[in-house]
Amino acid sequence: MTATIVVVLVLIFIAAVVFKSIALIPQGEAAVIERLGSYTRTVSGGLTLLVPFIDRVRARIDTRERVVSFPPQAVITQDNLTVAIDIVVTFQINDPARAIYGVDNYLVGVEQISVATLRDVVGGMTLEETLTSRETINRRLRGELDAATAKWGLRISRVELKAIDPPPSIQQSMEMQMKADREKRAMILTAEGQRESDIKTAEGEKQARILSAEGEKHAAILAAEAERQATILRAEGERAAKYLNAQGEARAIQKVNAAIKSSEVTPEVLTYQYLDKLPQMAQGQGSTMWMIPSQFGDSLEQFAKAFAKKDDDGVFRYEPSKVDPETKEMAGQDDTDAWFDTSSDPEIARAVAEARAVANKPADSPLATELEKNSALPVQPPVAPQPTPLQQSLE
């Protein structure tokens, strides 16, 4: 029984010795080893052998980056306003031995140094500068903390101001100021928009009036040109008509004269026609009395003696004169097909086609430029119309 107890005690002792001689350090941690109360070494990440009952692990330190948020701190600005600022510090322990032996509690040390540095930095700024200078405050806090905690084996990688809370009254005043500024900018933008709209509207109306005036000007020019052309053409037509009437009357007289000469009318026929027309001459409304002169026969006798020859029987007989070929040709039938030619003058057809093309032209956006070009062009004088076949035949 006693031997059994001894064996158990020996096994327990061996297990205790083995337990005390082995230390397992996880990845991301570091262990500070002491031997008989004195610092020996720092181990990390793996299995470590210790001298039983002589070596011991003083502390295990997390070597990963740590993010620590400190509660809001009351800080007085240069313009005597109290603001609450809370900061976030990101740091990493590079030397676990210094973090253990250099400071009692490195977290409290980092917090106190951060608050002191923050009050020193913000105390030299106004509230407005504090609110708009976060990057400057962060940079100064990081520099001060990194220099102060280097002897503790810490490395300050980043310092951020999480929130800056001014007093409620100041917040209300700032909100009112921001609201007034936003309303001011809104009013300015509205005024600018209205001004731009008015300018654009005025420009549009100006362009519309210019285009309308140019269109009316061009239309007036075209109307005046059309009226001038129409007046010229009417005058030309009236002149041609008068000329054709005169030519027709002259040709008709020549035709009648040639026909009379060609027909070789005798004085007997003329006398018969004269006596046949006397009753018609007396049928006029104003002819209440018509007298034949008593010497009328003598007149006819003298006319016959002047234009006739006395035959053997003592009777004066009229012998018509010989008709020349030109008179016979004139008395013949003329070619009157060209008199009734109703085809339009080529110049008139061309003018009508141009006017129809201008009237059918669509109005596009660069109308003002086109109208200016058209209005700047010199007006071409009208081309005299070519004589028609009827005029050529009369001439």
From TrEMBL:
The keyword Cell wall biogenesis/degradation does not apply. SMART domains: PHB. This is SPFH domain-containing protein. It is a single-pass membrane protein. Residues 355-395 are annotated as: Disordered. Residues 20-178 form the Band domain. It is found in: Membrane. InterPro entries: Band7/mec-2_domain, Band_7, Band_7/SPFH_dom_sf, Band_7/stomatin-like_CS, Stomatin_HflK_fam. Keywords: Membrane, Transmembrane, Transmembrane helix. It holds the Pfam family Band_7. Residues 379-388 have a biased composition (Pro residues).
